[in-house]
Design brief:
CATH architecture of the largest domain: Alpha-beta prism
Number of domains: 2
Strand order of the largest sheet: 21-22-1-23
Largest sheet: 4 strands, mixed
Bound molecules: uridine-diphosphate-N-acetylglucosamine, phosphoenolpyruvate
CATH topology of the largest domain: UDP-n-acetylglucosamine1-carboxyvinyl-transferase, Chain
Oligomer: single chain
Helix content: 25-40%
Distance between the termini: 5 Å
Length: 419
């Protein structure tokens, strides 16, 4: 069993380099199924989720070569001979479902287990499936599996009831090899959608409008190989920004795209934190106790749900009362119980949490219930009085590259212990 142990109270200073985005690299690796030619990604984040998607790809017959020192990966999908990825792999990560669009588009068939719910909500896939059906696929479900078949997908107009990130990505990937034009309306606008579209366009796809609510895809006959650099992880950046603010630190966060972290900059400014912006890095200086601010999670460019738990850790020691409202997922407050173990004063009222800022948090034994809940507990542990031990750290390993090493370099008293 592994745990992360933190002795709180150290002020963080120095520089941290942000890794490439988990939520970009996963769909982009899946998209490499669309071409028989080699796709190379440079400087990828070596995360557990990346290993899972690579194993899914491998199970289908793709040749994957990861150069672990440089973080470069080569994918060649010229020998795809299995059309059903194994349940044991798919169930480990929801993003495995993103192989569905590419497989359907290129091979006309896929059978994959339903991803099911998880700790943050039920997370249905109805919008993905409606999109595939609109493109002409015959979609059936049974015995925990979804199967889709088609001769050749045909472009269509698809309106998403909610701007789902995964549905936009999956439908976009399905449409690139379809006959004719597809329009996705009320599409998700997240930077990771733009990164995926850029990757696909560099392979020869014809996608316009990614990053707006209307994405147009003109189907092409085949795609080439390509070389691509994945965008920096805006959620990892936001997590280190909060760490600097919480610990009254002075931290330079390198390898960021300012536009992508605007919602976090705005909320930290409102909380009285000083932020100095440069083109590819920012400096976060937490001179004073943060002021309470209200937050409502929204699809991009709104405040990201993936930063909600970390901001709740910050608001737990802020001056005043804040209200955090989660509108994207129906059950994303699992971290509240654990933060309360650390003396946070939080009450849940429907989709909102009311946080009375305390003068201090106290160290405790806590468990990571999901990825960002785990990140919030690390943040709380950095500022809590005494020792915090975080269990179930495998959730954190899904999405943070060398989290202990990076915080240690900034001066945190943090270690990973294997028992
Ligand atoms: C790997 C990845 O990129 N994960 C991100 C992605 O997840 P993911 O792509 O799963 O998130 P979605 O945008 O699809 O989900 C948003 C909301 O839409 C609902 N929904 C979604 C699809 C569907 O067919 N039907 C439906 O009702 C979901 O239950 C949820 O309530 O976007 C989320 C929202 O920014 C982030 O928190 C995740 O980190
Ligand atoms: C919810 C997240 O990821 P996933 O969609 O892979 O569960 C996340 O990155 O916070």
């Amino acid at each position: 069993m592994e745990k992360i142990k933190i002795n709180g109270g150290n002020r963080l200073t120095g520089k941290v380099k942000i890794s490439a985005a988990k939520n970009s690299v996963l769909p982009i690796i899946a998209a490499a199924l669309l071409s028989p030619y080699e796709c190379i990604l440079e400087d990828i984040p070596l995360l557990d989720d990346v290993d899972v998607i690579c194993n899914v790809m491998h199970s289908l017959g793709a040749a994957i070569d990861i150069e672990r020192n440089s973080g470069s990966i080569s994918i060649k999908s010229d020998n795809i001979n299995i059309l059903e990825p194994p349940y044991e792999l798919v169930r480990r990560m929801r993003a495995s479902f993103l192989v569905m669009g590419p497989m359907l588009s290129r091979f006309g068939r896929i059978k994959i287990s339903l991803p099911g719910g998880c700790n943050i909500g039920t997370r249905p896939i109805d919008l993905h499936l409606k999109g595939f059906a609109a493109l002409g696929a015959e979609v059936t479900m049974g015995h925990g599996y979804v199967e889709a078949k088609c001769n050749k997908l045909k472009g269509a107009k698809i309106y998403l009831d909610f701007p789902s990130v995964g549905a936009t990505e999956n439908i976009m990937m399905a449409a690139v090899l379809a006959d004719g034009e597809t329009t996705i309306e009320n599409a998700a606008e997240e930077p990771e959608i733009v990164d995926l579209a850029n990757f696909l366009n560099s392979m020869g796809a014809s996608i316009i409008g990614a990053g707006t609510d209307t994405v147009k895809i003109c189907g092409v006959k085949e795609l080439n190989g390509t070389k691509h650099q994945v965008i920096p992880d805006r959620i990892e950046a936001g997590t280190y920004m909060v760490a600097a603010a919480l610990t009254h630190g002075d931290v330079i966060i390198e390898n960021i795209i300012l536009e992508h972290i605007r919602p976090m900059i705005a909320k930290l400014n409102e909380a009285g934190i000083t932020i100095i912006e440069e083109p590819t890095r920012i400096r976060v200086i937490g001179k004073n106790r943060p002021k309470a601010v209200d937050i409502k999670t929204m699809p991009y460019p709104g405040f990201p749900t993936d930063m909600q738990a970390q901001f709740m850790a910050l608001m737990s020691i802020a001056e005043g009362t804040s209200i955090i409202t989660e509108t994207v997922f129906e059950n994303r407050f699992m971290h509240v119980t654990e933060l309360k173990r650390m003396s946070a004063d939080i009450k849940i009222d429907g989709r909102s949490a009311v946080i009375e800022g305390k003068n201090k948090l106290t160290g405790a034994k806590v468990k990571a219930t999901d990825l960002r809940a785990g990140a919030a507990l690390i943040l709380a542990g950095l500022v809590a009085e005494g020792t915090t031990e975080i269990f179930d750290v495998h959730h954190i390993d899904r999405g943070y590259v060398d989290v202990v090493g990076k915080f240690k370099l900034l001066g945190a008293d943090i270690e990973r212990i294997t028992e």
